[in-house]
Amino acid sequence: MAKIIAFANQKGGVGKTTTAINIGASLAAIKRRVLLVDLDPQGNAGTGLGFVRASHAQSVYGVIMGTDNVSENILSTAIPNMHILPSSPQLSSAEVELLDMENREYRLRDAISRISDHYDYILLDCPPALGFLTLNALTTADSLIVPLQCEFFALEGIQALMGATAEIRKKWNTNLETMGIVLTMYDKRYGLTRAVEADVRGTFGDKVFQTVIPRNVRVSEAPSHGKPALFYDFQSAGAQAYLRLATEIVNACGDKGDANV
């Protein structure tokens, strides 16, 4: 049975999709079978893996709406062991369409349950909002990872997300756990970065991953080449940080298999 991890933060631009892509690639590199589900209508996860949206008909939209079979909408990527269930522009209407649907909180969970045995990890890249798409991700997931940019309003935003997560755990998914918070776009030269880190670690303690993701040009460049940082510049500080973070995630999941790249 796959370990299902949602990457969520209602704030955009925090490195959520970049983190999902690079963790997926890192897990695939250690021979884990990975499915990345792109729940963001912008479709950046697919773009970051080299897919042109107009070049394929597959989409998570029909899967959530119940009109399409999940297995027929999964695409292989250029990375061995890694697949993607891509987004599409139609997904932007899902928030409204789900309002009148039965079982609207569990549409994704029910679809993913049919293929979960084929993967070791299923990663859910959520949109930057706490709507029905994110709700579907959090009712499907076992664990939540929160990418958090080191900026002034970070702590305020994450406390709102944790409150929403607690409500989801109480009402819809009692198995949901917060695996951890990962600090992204980290630049130790700035006092604000160090202050935010101190605040977040002081508030959430061991729920904050030890690995931080630095501001790194190679990580920023990689999506424009349709590659994760690991396959764009393996030696870059960003790629190496994501490998360390993947090791923390594997350990947190109790995955005892070989973790060598």
What can you tell me about this protein's structure?
The protein has helices spanning 16-29, 44-48, 60-65, 94-97, 107-112, 132-140, 154-171, 191-204, 217-221, 229-232, 237-252, and strands at residues 3-7, 34-38, 75-76, 82-85, 121-125, 143-149, 177-184. It has 11 helices and 7 strands. With 261 residues, it is α/β, with parallel strands linked by helices.
Features:
globular; alpha/beta; about 15% strand; about 260 residues
Summarize the structure.
Strands 3-4-2-5-1-6-7 form a seven-stranded mixed β-sheet, sandwiched between helices. The longest helix is centred in the middle third of the chain and has 18 residues, at 154-171. By secondary structure, the chain is an alpha/beta fold.
Compute the number of helices. 11
Residue share in β-strands = 5-15%
> Biggest sheet: strands, sense, closure?
7 strands, mixed
Shape: globular
Query: If you compute it from the alpha carbons, what radius of gyration comes out, rounded to the nearest whole angstrom?
Result: 17 Å
Number of extended strands: 7
Cα separation of the termini: 23 Å
Mean pLDDT across residues: 93
Q: Largest sheet, order of strands side by side? A: 3-4-2-5-1-6-7
